[in-house]
Amino acid sequence: MEMLIVSSEQQKRLIMLFIAKKASMSDKALLNNLNAYEVKSSVYAAFKQAPDLRVERILLPAFDDKNAKLLGGDFLYRYLSKGYICLGNYTGKPKPDLTPWGVRSVRMLPKVGFGL
What angle do CA 8, 48, 59 make, to 5 degrees? Predict the structure, then answer.
C-alpha cells in the first residue's frame, strides 16, 4: 500500500492519496493527472495549478493496519505541524493516526479541508 502526499509549499496545502499497491506512474505523470482524483474542497482547482507541487511517496505495510495508521499519521503530522492545510475530509484507508503526537481532533475548515 502506498500513501502519496502532493503538496504546495507556496500555498501551504496538501492532498493525500491512498493506493492499494505501489503506484507505477512517475511523479510528473501523477501531477499531470490530478484531475483524475476527486477531492471535495473548494480550493482544489487552485491547488492543482500551483507551480511548486511536489510528491512524497510513503510505503505503508499492507496487512498491518495499526502500523500503517501510525506511519501515515507521522508523515501527515510533519506537514500539519508546519501550518499546512489538508484538502478534503479527514478520511482514508487506513486513516492516519495522529494521537501519538497529542492530536485528538483536527480543525475542520468547511468546504476546504482540515489542519491542526
Answer: 60
User: Taking a C-beta distance cutoff of 8 angstroms, is the pair 72, 64 a contact?
Assistant: no
For 10, 44, 89, the CA distances from 51, given in Å and listed in that order, are 9, 14, 24
For 66, residues 6+ apart whose C-beta sits below 8 A from its C-beta are: none
Query: Could you tell me the mean pLDDT of each successive run of 10 residues in the chain, 116 residues long?
Result: 91 90 81 89 94 92 84 91 90 82 90 93
Predicted model pTM: 0.87
The H-or-E segment that residue 75 falls in is helix 65-80
- Sheet of strand 107-109, all strands in order from the earlier edge strand to the far edge: 53-59, 2-8, 13-19, 85-87, 113-115, 107-109
Distance CA 19, CA 25 (A): 12
H/E stretch holding 55 reads: strand 53-59
